[in-house]
Amino acid sequence: MQKHYDQRETADPQERERSLMERLPKALRQATLRAPAIATQLQGVEPDALRSRADLARIPVIRKSELLQAQLEAREKAKHAGKIRAEDVFAGFSTIGWGQAKRVFASPGPMYEPESARPDYWGFARALYAAGIRDNELVYNCFSYHFTPAGSMMETAAHALGCTVFPGGVGQTEQQVVAMQDLAPTAYTGTPSFLKIILEKAQAMGTRIPSLSKALFSGEAFTPSMQAWFVEHGVNGFQAYGSADLGMIAYETEAREGLVLNEDMIVEIVRPGTGIVVPDGEVGEVVITTLNPDYPLVRFGTGDLSAVMPGASACGRTNTRIRGWLGRADQTTKIRGMFVHPAQVAQILARHPEFSRARLVVRGKLGEDKMVLQLEGAEQFSSLEESVLSSVREITKLRAELEFVTVGTLPNDGKVIEDQRSYE
């Protein structure tokens, strides 16, 4: 059986770099013709002159917050004009519109991303293959199928491998157990915490799911302790790192040494807040230029922190490895698989002027995220608890606990979101 997804995974590193740099100018030429926002970003830079990473560094980094702001402004302007087009929704960053885009998804903000009909659009088939999943298997997909693209990411990847998919989605754990027993899937895709809940529910019901032996996790950190827990329960799990803007960025292999980069992206690690590439091994912000012809983001700052690892993987794949997700370069935080932005905390506060300041604190262990909104006011406002909780759910799509504190209690350090979780 073939060990690797394709020959590119074991290519000579110098040949891989040459190939990427040869593909880059053509991709950018096409992007400037059909995506006006990319043409603006590349103003003064001739695509054919970009032949190295040093040349690429001449292009300014555009960060997630800037992309969101561009979309918000474009949509607002279009609303006033009385007509909203696809180019307004995507703020000129996409080369495809309605009809060419098979689906459109939403991320918190809200920010919208297209999905075209190209097979394995999000690039996760490579990660599924590294997790041991092969054709003619049933993949049980427990990522959400609405608003966010996670469900489609895994489904399109599984289809590219020749697998059948059951769209389990999230929630209803008892029904998930019954469906898994009826269908006997060999593989699971979703967050590790949800599969843990399903397996614990099966145990509580006095039953097991013996068919399930493989898993590809994303949306949450997957620590060695979690890996060991799943092995004890008969599941060999691997992780993949991706985003709604870019698709699959990097994935874990049987070597269990960092994450191997996707073959269709140019990944840089830069000093947070700048476009300056840091030395290998130093932690910085993950910046990506994707060769996706439909949504060609150039020097896109993800806001995620990571670092390049030295040497090659023992699994035989020769592409660069990164240490995985090491936190956020800004205060945007991922909670239960969803990003929460400082702007969303501000929106909650604006709805409740009785409070002068707010701070969102995330506590707990892996898979047991606890979101606590601290609100500062002149007195205790417990009578407002239900309305505040409703605002939190509506704006963040997550549930939270509240802590009411007196004026002057919250630290004056500029933090709106504080991550106190343990990642051990």
Automatic annotation (TrEMBL):
Residue ranges of every copy of the AMP-dependent synthetase/ligase domain listed in the record: 138-289
Regions crossing the membrane: none
Pfam families: AMP-binding
InterPro entries for the chain: AMP-bd_C_sf, AMP-dep_synth/lig_dom, ANL_N_sf
Name of the protein: AMP-binding protein
Species of the source: Alcaligenes endophyticus
